[in-house]
Structure formats: structure tokens, C-alpha cells
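Anyone? Bumping this.
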Amino acid sequence: MPGPDLLSSQGLRLDGRRPNELRRIRCKMGVFTQPDGSAYLEQGNTKVLAAVYGPHQAAKSKSSTEGVVVNCQYSMATFSTGERKNRPRGDRKSQEMSLHLRQALTAAIKTELYPRSQIDVYVEVLQADGGAYCVCVNAATLALIDAGIPLRAYACACSASMAWHGGQPEPLVDVGHVEEAAGGVVLTVASLPSTENIALLEMSHRLHMDYFDVVLSRAMQGCRDIEVILDKAVREHLAEGWTKEDVVTI
Amino acid sequence: MADLLLSSTEKIFIVHGVQDDYRSDGRSNIDYRPMELETEVVSHASGSARLRLANTDVLVGVKTEIDTPKPDQPGLGKIEFFVDCSANATPEFEGRGGEQLANSISNMMQRAYQSSQAFELKQLCILEGKQCWKLYIDILILESGGNLYDAVSLAVKAALFNTRIPFVKAVLMDGGNVDLQLSDDPYDCKHLDVGCAPLLITLCKIGDKCVVDPSAEEESCSVISVVVGVTGNTKSYCSGKEIDSVKSLERKCSTIGMNGSGSLAPQTLQSAIMQGMVAAESLDEALGQALLRERQENVILKKHAYGFLK
Amino acid sequence: MPLDYKRFNGPEDSISYKRFTEDYIKSYDQLYQELIDENGVRKDGRAVDEARKMFAINDVVTQAKGSAYIELKQTKVVCSVFDPREIPHQNEFSQLGQIYCEVKFAPFSCPRKRRPHAPEAEERALSVALRKALEPTVCRHLFPNFQIDVFVYILEHDGACLAVAINAAGLALASAAVPIYDIITACTIAVIDGKMIMDPTEAEEHLAIMSPETQTNHGLITMSTLSQLRQITDFRQIGSLDVDCVTKAMDLLQKQCMKIVPNIQRVLVSNVIKYHKERKKLEEEAREREEALNKKMEEWKLLLNAG
């Protein structure tokens, strides 16, 4: 398959990573005081802020007796991309992203616990450098945890692409902006890694069925790796709170 | 701002506190809350700053584009303000909910930067009548804990101070075409002269007195506030040898506006403007010092931005 | 808002050829000399502290509850005020009534450019400013959960349009019998090269906003006041002025606003007298008709009795 050249002869990617290597993930929970939960997460140069409000009484038009309604809004800062964006939200792409985000998060939240309620999740992309959707899902998960909303499992999202190295197919995990722009296939998976469930699967460009499994399993592996990182961050965040203040007061 | 519920007794408590010059968070009427400022936080922008004033969080990115100047102002560049109230601040801002507030802030900023004594647009000119720089100043409001105008103006000034504009050589070719030559070296650029850029000071009238830097709770106790835009002093933004060559300019009002549904007596307005000038002076000086220190640290220590990770 | 489909609008970034003509690219000094001569007399013959003559009438729009038309030489503004109505699309009850303001420029109103139909930033800013000025004026607690619509149409713009719009709105509110605390009046002052110029024309406003080479004061202030209550409802300044200058301008503006009040009152009073007279005349006519009818009845009764 004559795809774009995403791997060098040494088997390194355009930004110097190995095929199975994630970008550096750094995160912080509880960045803001006013929302019920908030988190900041950066994956390489993609930086996202997420805030969660709720659960609170649902707006009449949205209310459902089945379970909680997850209301998402995805917006991108006007300075987040290389070329200035005119509108931070409301365009087709952001609306689609909001819907996808909602799908992934609804799968993770124990919705049945809060009928007739609503949870607002707002994500703000401060800097976009590929894989914005994945970073948003990961940040939103952290914000939900910070807000204390019961989840079935961590919702993690990761993307994967595909390249050839020495005649062999080599899937690439966590696609960056340069690789996205080069026009390779991008498979995005939002999953609950600990239950092995897939909440959302989306693919752009063409990929032969034979290689689909390889790419998917690489993306799933990425999700599992991210879960480990998020879990560690959550534990550290909670431990921090305990040692500093709460232990003394108890 | 999210879910701010105050009972009438709480409001009375705040009002009485202001009368006695002792506010509910321990400040006097002329004190600001603690601020955190960091520049160079967004790598996609030519200049950026993040300001956190207690609960209020503002992120500003400056982007530059090349544009043609207006025909009746051939020697001037352009500057445009855009405010986005993120829903992160309060669910009310979801969708188009924050538009009204955003418009009033960006209008106020545009008016404050209008005069050449506040911001010299000539420094954005590349080739007179043909090419100029256009600065897009994008302001993102991430959390609102009162006093947005002051926070925005401080962050904008810091972001402009941090903005680097590449050196461009423009040559007029045949047929009126312009040939632009950009240097290959990304460090080959100039800083803007923003010393006299204005700061907005909000004076919130609570009871009979005006306070600076109102918190969200205090804002809800007041029906009228005055916003004064005061030009800065270039001297506070120069370091080393430059200081002597710059002459100190008088501080002036570059804009005045009123917010809220109430009205004011003329004497109150006058004293509010005076109070605003005094507050602006110390605020401007403090900002200048902080920015100079930050610039120095960036050069010497090669410091990386903390951003939101701190 | 109707869109202008029938006309070929130029490309968005097109510019009127007029803006390349000499009139538009004059330098600051040229403009200054043109507008104010060395004796301090302005182009239209006024002294620097002299306002234009005002023409005001009310009840010009028959469909509206109250309306007003004010003209300051070339600045012409119509304002109409409609009855209070329930606030549309609102879930929460609001204790205070609301005022909805909309300011529009006629497409042909401005000398510098044609106004497009779509609402644009300047119109929105003026609408907000007008609302800010009117809110403290109207007794809003008398209309809980209701809104009053105020529409201002600027037919011709030759400076001080916000001040004129506020004056017109005040007059229209009064003639619509909306309870107000006081009559609101507004006026504009321009500061050019340190000189205070009362009630500027568009050209003077333009010059006041233009930045001079020197560090002199320049700017534009619009202030609206409730003169009996001695309150300032709105104050907006642009440009670069020092505090003394602002204070001085404030005094001048206050005096000028006071001067406008009797004029507005006269219009209102004459209107009341006019209606009173009309009503008297109508009552008179009605009485005459009734008398005639009674007379006829008497005659018929006599005929009936006789017959």
C-alpha cells in the first residue's frame, strides 16, 4: 500500500516517537474552584481544559426519566490552531465533536443513578495539535472524577494510524497533527479499557480489512496505557489532598 | 458566578463592611486581590498571557496577520479584540449565552485602545498604504469571580508586552505589487511598544462608597459601577538604559463607561474617576515590574511555562 | 431583519471610491483649520460652546404608543415606544421590567459609508448605551415581567447621534405615558486640541477621535442626566483626556443638559394643551349634537301627542 511515509528507515515517526509510544501526558485535576469538577490535560502540544457542572435538575426539554442527561459542549479557543479560527463554537465540526463526546461519556457514567437530572461537561481546547477529541475525552473523564460522579470505568480515547516499515504493516498510536495532515488513516477509539468495551469508534480514510484488527488493537492498547496514566494521576491527586489538610483535621 | 446565591442579610453584611472600609475578605476598599500572571503560555500565538485574579481566570492570545491598511489611515495598523466567554466559567455562557457580556467587554477594550496616546498603531505599519500588521487579540474567559474588565485589560497588556512581531522587509514591485521578505530566523523579531497601553479599572458603588476589584458577591450588591480606562506609563516598562531616553507621560483617561442599571451623582462620578486614576498608577507600575522580571527570567533561566499545571 | 437581496452588494472588503478622494485623506491639521478658524468660530458659524438649535415634536408615528422626532440641523432621529408587553421567551420571573432598545441607522444616513441592512457592531453598541441610559429613568418596578420596546431610527447622522437618540427616547417615553422618574436629557462634547466643542458635527467628531501628533487632549464625551434628581445615568468617553479636562467637560455637559430640559417640557406641555383643546372641542361638539337631538325628540313628542 503506497501510503504517506510516516516512518523513517530507523522506524521512528515524524516527531521522533516509536510507533507504540504515546505523547507525553501531563494533567492536573481541580484547576478551577467554581465548577463542581475541572481538569486540565495536555497530550504533547494538545491542551484541553474541562469543567463539569452537576448533576442538577435538568432543563424541561431535556429531562429524561431513564437516567441522567449528559450535556456536552466542545469549543476551541480562537488562538488554538495555527491559523486563527473565527468562531470558537457552533460550527459543524464542534457540534459533531460535542455529540461524540456525549456518546463516550454517557457510556462511562452510571446514568441510571440520576433520573431527571443533567450533567454539563464543557471542554475548551486551548491548543490543538492533533487528536483533540481523544484529549477531550480523557480530560472530561478526569473532570467527572473530580466532580465525584460515579463512573462504570475510566473512559479513555486514543487514536491510531498505520504505516509500513520494511514491508511490514506497523500501526502507530496517538496520532499527532503532522501525521493527521499527511493524510494517513486515523482510527479513533473511545473505550472503557477495564471492561474492554468500545464506546465510540470512528475512522477516516481507507484501510484494508486485513489490517483493521492490528490498528484497532494498537488503539485499544493506547487506551489501556492512558488509563494507567490517568489512574495514577487520580490517585496522586487524592493522596495530595489527604496528606496536606484532611489528615490533620481528622 | 456560577450559582451565586446571596441572602439579603449577607448583602447587608457586605454593604456595612464596605462602609467601614473593611470588606468580607479582609481587604480595604482600595485593595486588589492576589494575582498570578504568566506570559508565553500558548505556543500557537505570537504572544499570550494568563492572568488569575483570585477566582477570575483569563487567557489571552495575540495572533498577527498581514492586512492592507484602511485607505484613510494608510500609515496605521489594525487591532481587533474578540472576547469569548467559555462555558467553563458558568453554564449560563453555553452556546451564545455569554455573547452580550463578551461584546460589552470587547467594545470597552476597543474604545480604550482607540487613541494613539494609548496604543500607537503606527508601529504596526509595514509599507505605508499597502501592508500592515493586524493584531487579533483573543480573550478567553475561563472562570469569572468578579472584576472581569480589570483582569482582561491586565492580561491583554501582558500579552501585548509578550508579543513578538517578525521583521518583514516589504519592497514595492512593478504594478503596485508588494513583495514581502520574512527572515528565516524565528528570533529575528521585535517587541511592541505597549508601555502606554491602558488598564481598565472598575469602581463598584456599594452603598455610598466605591470599591476597586469587586468580587462576584460584591458585584451582586451593587447596581452601578464605573469603568475607567487609564493610559500607562512607558517608563515602568523599560529596563536598564532605555529608562533615561523615555520621558514620563501624564496618565490620561482613554475611556470611561458605566455598567449596571443604576445612576450616579456627578460628585460620585468625579471621585470615582480620581480613585480609578490612583489605582491604575500603582497597578500599572506593579504590572510593569512583574513583566520585566518575567522577561528577564525567560532569557536567563530559559524557564518553561507552567500553564495550568501549577 | 430583511436582507438586501435585490442589490448587488460589492465584495465584503470593497471600499467606496470616495474614500480615496482628497476630502477623506486630509491630514489632521488641514481638517482642524477647516473646522475651526483662528477666532474660534466653527465651520457652521457657531461659537465653540454653542449647541445646535433643536427641533422636537412628539407623536409622529401613529402606530406607536408614544413617539418623537428630534432634529439638530443635519442629525435627524425618530424614536417610537410601544406598550409594555410580557417578556417573550423567558422562563424566570423578573421583578423589574425590562427595556428593549434597538438603534438602527438608515442605509443612507452616514456621510462616510452606506449602512448595510444587517445589524452591526456600532448599532449594537448604541443600543446597549441607550438601554443603559434609560434603565435608571423608567420606574421599572411598576412593570414586573414586562418589557417596553424602544426603537430608534437614525435618518441622518451628523454627529451626537447617541445624545439625540436619548433625548428622543426620553420624549417618546413621556408621551407614551410610561412612568419615569425625571426627564432624561443628553448631550455630547468633543475635545479637540484641548478645546471644548459643544454638540459636535460628524466631521468634528471624526477629528476628535483622530489622534493628533502631539500629546494634547482629544476625545468625545456623551453624558445623559436626570436634571431634577441631579443624577448621571450614562457617561461614556473615548479618546485621551486628563482628569481636569474630564471634570471641566462634565460641568459644561451638565449645564447644557439642563438647558435642554425646558425645551422638552415645552413640547410635552404644548402637546397636552393641544390634546386638551381637542378634547374640549370634541366634548363641545358632542354636547351640541345631543342638544340638537333632544330638540328633535321634543318636536317628535309634540307631534306624537298632537297626532
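Late reply, but here is one note on the structure posted above: The interface with chain A takes residues 1-2, 42-45, 48, 55, 57, 59, 61-63, 65, 82, 84, 86-91, 94-96, 136, 138, 140, 142-145, 307-310 of chain B (CB under 8 Å).
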